[in-house]
Amino acid sequence: ALISLRQMLDHAAEHGYGVPAFNVNNLEQMRAIMEAARQTDSPVIVQASAGARKYAGAPFLRHLILAAIEEFPEIPVVMHQDHGTSPAVCQRSIQLGFSSVMMDGSLQEDGKTPASYDYNIDVTRRAVDMAHACGVSVEGELGCLGSLETGMAGEEDGVGAEGVLSHDQLLTDPEEAADFVQKTKVDALAIACGTSHGAYKFTRPPTGDILAIDRIKEIHARIPGTHLVMHGSSSVPQEWLAVINEFGGEIPETYGVPVEQICEGIKHGVRKVNIDTDLRLASTGATRRFLAQNPSEFDPRKFYKVAMDAMKDICIARYEAFGTAGNA
Ligand code: G3H
Ligand code: 13P
Ligand code: NA
Ligand code: ZN
Asked: What is the pLDDT of residues 198-226, one digit of tens each?
């Protein structure tokens, strides 16, 4: 059944677990997420980015998610719009039937230029007014995602700040977070703690100086009733990097957010954990290996199937690690 983000995260907070929010663009990702959820009895957040709408088209995305809800009626599903760049974008998603939208006012409408605090409050409050009138939840964002090593936002095209960010922009301020939530009435707040989008988050396994879990604890202590969201939460599995590189890929050394660190965040108010890159890496690795090992195969369903299974394994592992399993 389709439910709102607020409804799902209230339950998660009450029972102390986190919910992975997986990005979807196609059938294989959607099936992997739902089959893993059914197998582990987990509630689901699926999110569609602007890139997903461009790739699949809004009607296909909408019906893909509605089809999942129809085929898996016992599973609570939040249909969430990821990184909306304006209240107008959020409005279109609400009209499409999304039960939750992200108004990312940390950046201006171009999705690249860091925005002022007042701009962020203004667009987020407008999105909340509109969404709440329709029973739809809103996720806001305060602080800019980016690396504390380099000051750069991640690699994803179309999402993330351009240029070098300052230390202040890269870590959400707890006092400002309290003011922001009070003024905007968001249902969930995405915070910046040193993670970034894409596969190139850290040049070494992260320690506290470049992955600021302590900052999450400080924010949670200040606003314990607010559901926190961690973007850029892929763990960048080293085993999948090795498979990709063994079978013709070229991905340089890189590290993601260790699952144990995410779990530490979940103990301190993180309820929604955004993951896209890990499913991309798993499906690419599985596809490369299959095609290399089966050079005469040409039925795409054969390699879509191994990609789907690889993504499903990641989903199961996250549902279990975050305590989502058993809560559908
Ligand atoms: O927020 C970033 C997500 O990974 C979406 O990426 O815009 O390439 O679909 P995308
Ligand atoms: P990753 O690139 O770490 O998977 O993060 C995805 C994300 O935050 C989508 O909003
Ligand atoms: Na989001
Ligand atoms: Zn994100």
From this structure: 999 999 999 999 999 999 999 999 999 99
> Each residue of 249-265: pLDDT tens digit?
999 999 999 999 999 99
Total domains present in the chain: 1
CA distance 74 to 69: 8
User: Which among 10, 82, 104, 187 is annotated as catalytic?
Assistant: 82
- The domain in which residue 149 lies consists of 5-321
Would strands 19-23 and 77-84 be described as parallel, antiparallel, or unpaired?
A: unpaired
pLDDT of 160 reads 86
In this prediction the ipTM stands at 0.97
Q: Please report whether residue 231 resides in a domain.
A: yes
Q: Is 268 helix (H, G, I), strand (E, B) or coil?
A: coil
pLDDT at site 159? 73
Closest among 163, 252, 161, 143 to 200, alpha carbons compared:
252
Give the position, in ligand 2's atom list, of the atom nearest the Cα of 236.
3
326 C-beta neighbours (distance < 10 Å), count = 12
pLDDT of residue 156: 61
**Backbone phi, psi, residue 156, to 5°:** -55, 135
The reply to whether 82 belongs to the active site is yes
> 63 Cβ partners below 8 Å, 6+ apart?
none
Let me know if residue 132 belongs to a domain: yes
DSSP3 helix / strand / coil % (the chain, rounded to 5): 45, 15, 40
